[in-house]
Amino acid sequence: MNVRLAHGIDAAPRSTPVHAVVALGANLGERRATLAAAVEELRRLSLTSDVRVSAPIETVAVTLEGEDEDAPRYLNAVALLETRLAPAELLASLHRIEARHGRVRRERWGDRTLDLDLIAYGDERIDRDDLVVPHPRAHEREFVLAPWLDVDPDAEIPGRGRVADLLGTLRGGLA
Question: What is the CATH number of the domain that holds 102?
Fold first, then answer.
């Protein structure tokens, strides 16, 4: 029997694994240790396997007003995983991991101890109030594209194109 969540996204585990992409970021506290601990928690998620992670990169903080050189710098990475978790359950799991690491959602795009974003879930396109995949701004963010390309040179964002091409465009044609 399929269980459907109130917001309509199927909550039942998938019969076959789906390739998911999760962006990790932290700019408060012990960033490197926090990212490493979060990756270990991703590896322990139920119905999830084959977690591969990019090398971390350090980036400037991005706010609603643009780049903020005065804010603490971020450490970013991307994790690829195979999961049978439904997209809403995977997102809920990411939020639980964030909470265990002190994430408080006070302001949009504010400083944070840990940020986990579900960037892609197979080739599915979901556009709901509580979940949008592919992530609507991933194609505009070098701090997502560069580490993603590091761990998967053939990566594509559904509906947007090859990550290498998107990164090249952001860098002014230099991929």
Answer: 3.30.70.560
Q: Tens of pLDDT along 105-124?
A: 665 556 789 999 999 999 99
Q: Which domain holds residue 98?
A: 18-136
What CA–CA distance (Å, rounded) separates 139 from 132?
14
CA 44 – CA 128 distance, rounded (Å): 27
Catalytic residues: 103, 112, 115, 117
How far apart CA 162 and CA 165 sit, in angstroms, is 5
- Rounded to two decimals, what is the model's pTM? 0.89
Give me the number of domains the chain comprises: 1
pLDDT in tens, 57-102: 999 988 778 888 888 999 999 999 999 999 999 999 999 999 999 8
